[in-house]
Amino acid sequence: MAATPFDIRRSLAIDPLDPGFGVYIHWPFCAAKCPYCDFNSHVRHQPVDQPRFIEAFLREMAVARRLSGPRTVTSVFMGGGTPSLMAPETVGAVLDGISRHWHVPDGIEITMEANPSSVEAERFRGYRAAGVNRVSLGVQALNDTDLKFLGRLHDVEDALKAIRLAREIFPRMSFDLIYARPNQTVEAWDRELTEAISYAVDHLSLYQLTLEEGTPFYGLHKAGKLVLPDGDQSALLYEATQAITEREGMPAYEVSNHARPGAESRHNLTYWRYGDYAGIGPGAHGRLTIPGGKIATATERNPEGWLHLVETAGHGMIEQERLQPEEQADELLLMGLRLKEGVDLARWQMLSGRDPDPERERFLIEHGFIERLGNARLRCTPAGMLILDAVVADLAC
After folding, report:
1. What is the pTM of this model?
2. What is the pLDDT at residue 2?
C-alpha cells in the first residue's frame, strides 16, 4: 500500500509562516549532463571517493555550526547533481552529522533528489532506512521522444516504475516536469500533466524550459537549430498549468510548485520565506543570521577544488558576505513574491526602513499585477506572476 502523505506543519506543531532553519547538502555529480542544465553538476568517469567526501561534509558542517550557533533544523534537502548516486551509507553518515551539529527533531522533512533510473531506484529502501522521508524525482517528461530530447537517461517505463516504488517506500513524494518544450501544444500538455497528477500523490514542480547561457541548448538556439515556444505560447502553457493543477486539487503555492494542501515543500518554503539555511558541499549557498546581522555564504564550485579547500582549511567557503538591511529587504521581496501567500509587509518595512512607493504600488494594483491582503501582506496576482521579475524590480526601486 502506498504511504499516506502527511501535513508537515501539523506534525511538528509549528507556525505555518515560520521560515524555519534548513540544511542543504549539495552532491555535485551526475551520470550525464543534461543539455539544458546550468546547475553545478559534474560528470566523473571514475568512482567518486565517497568516504572522503563524507569527511569533508562533516568538517564543513562544523564550521557552519560555529557560524549559525545552536539551531533547530526544520528541514534537510539533498540536491545536486544527482544525490541518488550516493550510497545509502553516505546518506546516513551525512544525516548523522547534521544531527550531531544541530538539534534535529523526529519527523522533520528530509528530502533527497533522485533520478528515476532502475539502478538508482534500487537504492530507495536504503535511503529510507537512512532517514530520508521525502523523495523528489527528476522525471521531466512522460513521453520517450521528449525524454531523449532533454538528454535524460531513463525512459517512461523507468519513470513509472520509480514513481510506484517511491510511493510504496517514502511518506512523501514529488517529481519534476519541464514544459514549454518545442512544438508543445496546450492540449498535449493537459493530457500529460493530468496523467502526472494521477501518479504524483502530493507535490509537483513544473518548470518552463529556459535557455541558460553556456548550456548546449543555448548554443543550439543561437545557431537557429532549436526553437522554443514564443512568449504568447509560453504564457498560454503557464496559464493552462495553473488551471489544470487547480482543477486536479494541486494548486500552485509558488510560481513553479504545486501541492495538495499540507504537502508543500517545507525546505523550499524556508528559502521563499527568507529563512536561514546552511549550505554544505561544492557550490552550495547559505544564509545565516550571526551576531550583528545576516551573511550570505558560498562555497567553491569545483568538487575537487572544494575537497582540497576543506582538507586544508577546514571548509570550502569562498564567500561570507554581510548583507545590509536593504539587501535583505530586496532578497525578501524577490523570494516572497514567488509565493501565493506573498510577502510579510511588516518584515519588509523593518528591513528596508520604508513603505512601498505608493505610486508604484498603485500602478501595479490598478493594472492587476499585485494585491494587498489587508495591511499585513502583499502578493502577486496570477497576471503578475507572468511578469514576476518586472514586478519585483519595480517594487524594489
Report:
1. 0.93
2. 34
